């Protein structure tokens, strides 16, 4: 599958507009400018890709997700090229969903289906937690945290 993307500089600063032809994103070199840094976009791509997989898998399993939210925290190497060394994802779901199905769907996404996480995991350790209807679960625990 081929894709074509482009960027153009939008001011005298190192700031760009990236596009796929239909949608634009502002790319900035620092937090002092409007837009996302390339590394922020990479992290968002990991959580975005895995979230799409997660919700698609749960839908196929007839799980009803009424509300969904996901976050990602990352640590980068101190020396260039300053790649991600650790990423932690936290998914929050409300609805008629079984925690064991959520865990399995996340594992399938991160281990098999999500192209972005499979690229990033060459340099970073990717971990996750999830919350279902207010009960938090860690990656390797079968019961809610605190039980």
From TrEMBL:
Q: Which domain of life is it from?
A: Bacteria
The record's annotation in InterPro entries points to:
KH_dom-like_a/b (IPR015946), OsmC/Ohr_fam (IPR003718), OsmC/Ohrsf (IPR036102)
Which Pfam families does the entry mention?
OsmC
Q: Which Gene3D superfamilies match?
A: 3.30.300.20
List the PANTHER family hit by this protein, alphabetically: PROTEIN YHFA
Return the protein name: OsmC-like protein
Organism, per UniProt? Salinibacter ruber (strain DSM 13855 / M31)
């Amino acid at each position: 599958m081929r894709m074509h993307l482009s960027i153009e500089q939008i001011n005298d600063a190192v700031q760009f507009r990236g596009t796929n032809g239909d949608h634009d994103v502002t790319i900035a070199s620092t937090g002092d400018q409007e837009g996302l840094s390339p590394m922020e976009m990479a992290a968002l791509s990991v959580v975005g890709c895995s979230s799409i997989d997660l919700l698609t898998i749960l839908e196929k399993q007839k799980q009803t997700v009424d509300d969904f939210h996901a976050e990602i925290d990352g640590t980068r190497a101190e020396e260039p090229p300053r790649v991600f060394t650790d990423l932690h994802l936290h998914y929050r779901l409300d609805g008629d969903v079984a925690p064991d199905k959520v865990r399995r769907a996340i594992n399938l996404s991160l281990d098999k289906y999500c192209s972005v996480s499979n690229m990033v995991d060459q340099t970073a350790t990717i971990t996750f937690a999830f919350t279902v209807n207010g009960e938090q679960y860690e990656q390797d625990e079968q019961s809610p945290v605190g039980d």
